[in-house]
């Protein structure tokens, strides 16, 4: 993540998602959203609940009150639990540790990350990797060079992997764009989000920078994480006996959580209080995007 940007607004993020809509999976949803009070209201209609993290379970490093108890209650009712996060800043062990530090009682196999999907797609060659300084990159399967401010490094690699925007800057983005102009190469974006809600604003995420490159080189950029299919493949593989219409995705973002799940014929739950639409009435955004969730509620 980059530093939270107080100038980045919900409307700007929504409008940019609409601009890049042709790159997202195509789906039609029906305007039959039902308002509910909690996920317990629909637990008898769902065999597996899949949760986005930011804006649903936590905001930044803070657990949303009651989220841990609700997951426990759903398990007690026999529902499977999965957390599907687009955060790719840490390896699998780091992601598991983060959720447990938040106070969530989760099993390791209940967590699926977009980083995992991107690493699965990596081929042979020398990779230029964009990530946080603290990322040890121990889980990368191929040769890599960490890209920072050394312009020559961008021309030495065969392809690019964008894991985290935590230490990314405008000048580094310019180096990447210039390198692509000289020699267009594959660019894998391991976090398709444009932004993520934090305690004091929105952080700009890898998807934001990836789509700037895709504006010029659309055939060279591949996105991983919601709403793109690879992470849903991982979830469904972990739930081999669960019909897709008995899986419900709970998220705060229409163009990632709701769109991606609806494209898989999952059920969808829009969570409104703490995420992208915090402080806004969501129905106008839903109508503008024509992305209608099955259910809507404030908190899970």
Features:
300 residues, alpha/beta, Rossmann fold, 5-stranded parallel β-sheet
Annotate the secondary structure layout.
Layout: H1 10-19, E1 34-35, E2 48-51, E3 58-59, E4 62-63, H2 67-76, E5 80-85, H3 92-101, E6 111-113, H4 114-121, E7 127-130, E8 144-146, H5 151-156, E9 159-162, H6 170-182, E10 187-189, E11 195-198, E12 201-204, H7 206-214, E13 221-223, H8 229-238, E14 247-251, H9 254-263, E15 267-271, H10 283-289, E16 295-297
Parallel strand pairs: 1-16, 2-5, 2-14, 5-6, 7-8, 7-9, 9-10, 10-13, 14-15, 15-16
Antiparallel strand pairs: 3-4, 11-12
**Protein structure class:** alpha/beta
Q: Give the name of the CATH superfamily of the largest domain.
A: HAD superfamily/HAD-like
Helix content: 25-40%
CATH level 1 class label of the largest domain:
Alpha Beta
- Based on the structure, what is the oligomeric state of the protein chains? single chain
Q: How would the global form be characterised? A: globular
Largest sheet: 7 strands, parallel
Task: Give the mean pLDDT.
Answer: 95
Report the C-alpha radius of gyration, rounded: 19 Å
Query: CATH topology of the largest domain, what is it called?
Result: Rossmann fold
The number of helical runs is: 10
Amino- and carboxy-terminal Cα gap? 25 Å
Query: Tally of extended strands?
Result: 16
Low-confidence stretches: 1-6
Number of domains: 2
Order of helices and strands: HEEEEHEHEHEEHEHEEEHEHEHEHE
